[in-house]
């Protein structure tokens, strides 16, 4: 006898078995426990039942297979139909998320519930702030397990947009703390760029990440460049900081050559001696800056050094860029 068969709570339900299919999926050997639970779940879904026992059933199925998105969808509809307090569901989900780090269905479910209660939260600024703080605290707990969990980072962007946290000092300081812990956390770099350059208070609506936005204050561009330059000094061979610098310059409408002197701190190429390259990314930056200025011979030299000595694994790429330069010379 299983968990549901013979249980008086479920006596009125006739489970619906899985139809036999063809191909690889038909060969999956499910446990008897999972087969039984899914039979009862199909039955309550067919009957469109929303009840406390359905919540218990979906929780059991999720404990067996947290990636079953249909169960999550039906659980959400049941919670909304029963008007279950969302905070209770979130507490339960926190534990499930910590046990299933790479599961995206959990975050979709979470956002469905937040969307449902947001109109009420938005009418009470204090409650909205408290909720956002609780979400941030939980995400920090998730980051302790994996600071680059992209599901959590995606949810963090959702929370920033939903609760308009673009100007939140706490949010910015939290990202800075993560980058101080690991300057190579490219997810944190990406979130910082999103936080700064998607802020509706001083950015152009619809402006792409790769284009100049004249609305962004120069002081903001200077601040972000200073932050990224300090990170590049800390870890010169960390590509994230250099890519961030490029992105900030692009948003500010500034040429790469404006930071030629900074990149030159990591690259020494004397005319008659051995070069000293502390960062291949700085050398790449200089190649593009020199190309931008029309100093094509210098750019070609930098790309040759990258392909032949400092980044040989991508030699074909650097040769391709050299070919573009040769085309420009003609």
TrEMBL record:
GO terms for molecular function: CAAX-protein geranylgeranyltransferase activity; protein farnesyltransferase activity. The keyword Cell inner membrane does not apply. It comes from the Eukaryota. Its cofactor is Mg(2+). SUPFAM superfamilies: Protein prenylyltransferase. It is an enzyme of class 2 (transferase). It holds the Pfam family PPTA. Keywords: Magnesium, Prenyltransferase, Repeat, Transferase. Coiled coil: none annotated. One of its GO terms (cellular component) is CAAX-protein geranylgeranyltransferase complex. Its EC number is 2.5.1.58, 2.5.1.59. PANTHER family: PROTEIN FARNESYLTRANSFERASE ALPHA SUBUNIT/RAB GERANYLGERANYL TRANSFERASE ALPHA SUBUNIT (PTHR11129), PROTEIN FARNESYLTRANSFERASE_GERANYLGERANYLTRANSFERASE TYPE-1 SUBUNIT ALPHA (PTHR11129:SF1). Belongs to the protein prenyltransferase subunit alpha family. This is Protein farnesyltransferase/geranylgeranyltransferase type-1 subunit alpha.
